Amino acid sequence: MADKSFDRRLQGLNILIVDGNHYMRRVTRTMLMNLGAKSVVEAADGLAALELIRTSDPDVMFLDWDMPVLNGMEVMHIVRSPGVFPRPNLPIIMLTNRAQRSSVVQALRAGVHEFLLKPTSPKALRDRLTSVTVNPRPMVKIGSFYVPEPRRLPASFEVARMA
């Protein structure tokens, strides 16, 4: 039953794929369409991504790190600017070939909801989409970072929230 509910939800999502590589955009689009996605738009660089966020109002964005014009981290910093950018709460899944732990930490601090390595699989795409749509985490400000609420909150953060 849960699978059918997710399938219906996926069909209604407007998904944005941002990747400088045309082939990777096409592969990701094909996997998403095979999963049941009906509305998928693409951007080849960070500047085009920002414009599409404003005009096509995506429900989820898959974002690569290494792109022309504005890279993934620059896009993240702009998008995660409440009061400045119109969609600071947009669920973002970083889809990249950067596998270093430092890159994962940097992306999470920048506010990505999920991190996914290339090449990926339809199951991994589905799992990440399920995570951000079925169990969305609210956005919170932690220090100077605007991020999805951590799955496991640091003890100091729990005390601060209760006060």
Structure description:
The termini are far apart. With 163 residues, this protein is an alpha/beta fold. Helix content is 46%, strand content 19%. It has 7 helices and 7 strands. The longest helix is centred in the first third of the chain and has 14 residues, at 22-35. The strands form 2 sheets. A 5-stranded parallel sheet has the order 2-1-3-4-5, sandwiched between helices. The chain has helices at residues 2-12, 22-35, 46-56, 72-79, 101-110, 122-134, 155-162, and strands at residues 14-18, 39-43, 60-63, 92-96, 114-117, 139-142, 145-148.
Q: List segments where confidence is low: pLDDT < 50 over at least 5 consecutive residues.
A: 158-163
Rg over alpha carbons: 15 Å
First-to-last CA distance: 40 Å
Record field, number of beta strands: 7
- The largest sheet has its strands arranged as 2-1-3-4-5
Count of separate DSSP helical elements: 7
Order of helices and strands: HEHEHEHEHEHEEH
Mean pLDDT, as a whole number? Answer: 89
Structural class: alpha/beta
Overall, the morphology is globular
Approximately how much beta-strand content do the residues carry? 15-25%
The residue fraction in helices comes out at 40-55%
Largest sheet: 5 strands, parallel
